[in-house]
Amino acid sequence: MNENAIELKGVSKTFRDFWLRPTVKAVDGLDMTVRKGEVFGLLGPNGSGKSTTIKIILGLLTPSAGSVTLFGLPPKSVEARNRLGYLPELSYLHPFLTARETLMYYAGLCGLDRRVSRERTDELLDMIGLSDVAKRPVGGFSKGMARRVALASALVGRPELLILDEPTSGLDPVSTNEVKTLVKTLAKGGMTILTTSHLLADAGDMCDRVMILDRGKTAAEGWMDELGTSLEKFFLAKVGEGRDFKIAPFLLEAGGES
């Protein structure tokens, strides 16, 4: 049995213009393995190849070279997609629907019957701490509350693998902490999670292992507690180059600039 949730081997992606001339090599010979049951962080500045890599894993983009599997299956296969949940960086919720109606809607898209949909919706509302406001339209929710509803929507089908694209983007510190707490709760339950970020502090709070991408290539990879110093130096170097990296406050004291 394949013990890896995600495997990328020699993956490259080159974008081409109208005349099929290569313009940007967004991912360049990437090898990556995400093991079952771990929280894996894919980090890097804007333009490092994170979003392209995620789209390849989701089967939304076909790599120019290399291979990708989810649980040993092609990412576009129905079986692989049935085991996958995805939270995009910018998630759209219908503002006129209540939190309960939103989750019931996604439960219907997952093919759950009415009774199971209600049970799953109640379970998720309780998990994200919004049972008391379940009948309020999500258009009136704060960004943090809306993000929790979007995360719950990705969990309706009980995925084995959850992919989070910048899950704390645009959130205030309190809302960020709420999302991190939810991610850690899911991880304790055995869910495999791949999360992207350009925030070193977020990775330190959530991830077991991380990979740093820079211009489509692996710059560093390993366990968070082993890579701490080298990650800090890498982040500071990128900030010094003017790259769009956000670093933890304690690093600013070491000479970095936000």
What does this protein structure show overall?
The chain has about 260 residues and is of the alpha/beta class. Helix content is about 35%, strand content about 25%. It has helices spanning about 50-60, 80, 100-110, 115-125, 145-155, 175-190, 200-205, 225-240, 250, and strands at about 5-15, 20-35, 40-45, 65-70, 85, 160-165, 190-195, 210-215, 215-225. The strands form two sheets. A six-stranded mixed sheet has the order 5-6-7-3-8-9, sandwiched between helices. Strands 2-1-4 form a three-stranded antiparallel sheet, with helices on one face. Helix 3 packs across helix 4, helix 3 (about 100-110) packs parallel to helix 5 and helix 5 (about 145-155) packs parallel to helix 6 (about 175-190).
Short description:
The protein is an alpha/beta fold and 258 residues long.
Question: Spans with pLDDT under 50 lasting ≥5 residues?
Answer: 247-258
Number of helix segments? 9
Q: Can you list the strand order of the major beta sheet?
A: 5-6-7-3-8-9
Shape descriptor: globular
Q: What's the average pLDDT? A: 87
Amount of helix: 25-40%
Q: N-to-C terminal Cα separation, in Å?
A: 45 Å
What fraction strand?
Answer: 25-35%
CA-based gyration radius:
19 Å
Helix-strand pattern:
EEEHEHEHHHEHEHEEHH
**Count of β-strands:** 9
Estimated structural class: alpha/beta
Largest sheet: 6 strands, mixed
State the main characteristics.
258 residues; alpha/beta; 9 helices; 37% helix; disordered C terminus
Question: What secondary-structure arrangement, pairings included, does this model have?
Answer:
Elements: E1 4-16, E2 22-35, E3 39-43, H1 50-58, E4 65-70, H2 78-82, E5 84-87, H3 99-109, H4 114-127, H5 143-155, E6 161-165, H6 173-188, E7 192-197, H7 200-206, E8 209-214, E9 217-223, H8 224-240, H9 249-252
Parallel strand pairs: 3-7, 3-8, 5-6, 6-7
Antiparallel strand pairs: 1-2, 1-4, 8-9
